């Protein structure tokens, strides 16, 4: 056990402590003196205490146990996603929170991101670095991701649903997917996204009718309009993004000073302690403070990449790749939403935004990366390139048989 402590990456621990300081000071600035949320900084400190305990536990326990029980973890996550549809509570248009004993709440969609990373990593490591077959591997992995994606979309949680696709894309990229398949997929995604954006802009009225009336996703309009057609967005819909942009721009290089942000302190930016906390950082700490925060993220991700490169096991690099994809997506979407690059999706800023579930998942994720550093130096059984690849799942075998039947006919 003492040897395991010596193998821990102290730079990662220091980064987590710095992120904790960012979070607690920022949340206190936003919530101090406000009756309903005035205690959120103290609650976040408690969440961080629990998070560091979870980080330590998952660091010292071998990550290979997670891989061993990956299927059961995945099925447990699916059960939670189904349960929340029936017994979940609705907040801000999304039905995705479960109430736990003691007044605590759990968001299964957040938790499932980590479950999905573990399960896909388990499936990919069975391939032993062989090229991924489209029908035997890529399509089954897509189905494994598509099922929880549907369940989360049924909760009206677009942000977390999209994160599943980003995790899948990142893991397929490092999972030895064929270049031709990768290129085709990228082209299809680019054309689909570009066409969708252009169609929404040029056929706005029809798109609004389709999304709000036919699909029943009226709240999506409030996210897409300020991003794509701000001139058509109503004042109520564009209120958050307009004031966020104003606050970020007014912060300048050095910021207005701690607890001196006019837009933040006057509560013109909703949820400034949660999804919109980057606005507080930009207005009160300025460009310098925002850059320091992004630099901390960069160093954290860089340290995890180094751990993946040094890992001698097959599953470790996949786990870290999935975790990095999850972090990069959350950071880009959250920050991008307030500088006009992305629509508002309700994604939290990792380690900074108020929230127990998201913080716990992030701390556990970094703990798994630390476990890979500690336990990932053991050599696994050798294999040869001529070894027959293992299909990702029985689904892949069934799809291959169907495909062969079409070819013969």
Q: Based on helices, strands and strand pairing, what is the structural class?
A: mainly alpha
Main sheet specs = 3 strands, antiparallel
Taken in chain order, the helices and strands follow as HHHHHEEEHHHHHHHHHHHH
How much of the residues is beta strand, in percent?
A: under 5%
Mean pLDDT across every amino acid position: 85
Chain-wise SSE layout:
Elements (H helix, E strand, L loop, with lengths): L1 H5 L3 H22 L8 H21 L3 H5 L1 H18 L1 E3 L2 E6 L5 E2 L1 H18 L8 H21 L3 H17 L4 H24 L1 H11 L3 H11 L6 H17 L10 H4 L11 H34 L4 H23 L18 H20 L18 H15 L1
Antiparallel strand pairs: 1-2, 2-3
Helix pairs in contact: 2-3, 2-14, 3-16, 5-6, 5-7, 6-7, 6-8, 6-15, 7-8, 7-17, 8-15, 9-10, 10-11, 11-12, 12-14, 14-15, 14-16, 15-16
Structure explained in plain terms:
With 409 residues, the protein is mostly helical. Helices cover 70% and strands 3% of the residues. It has helices spanning 2-6, 10-31, 40-60, 64-68, 70-87, 108-125, 134-154, 158-174, 179-202, 204-214, 218-228, 235-251, 262-265, 277-310, 315-337, 356-375, 394-408; strands at residues 89-91, 94-99, 105-106. A hairpin with a 5-residue loop joins strand 2 and strand 3 (105-106). Mean pLDDT is 85; it is low at 381-389 and 405-409.
Keywords:
mainly alpha; 409 residues
How would you summarize this macromolecular structure in one to three sentences?
The chain is an all-alpha fold and 409 residues long.
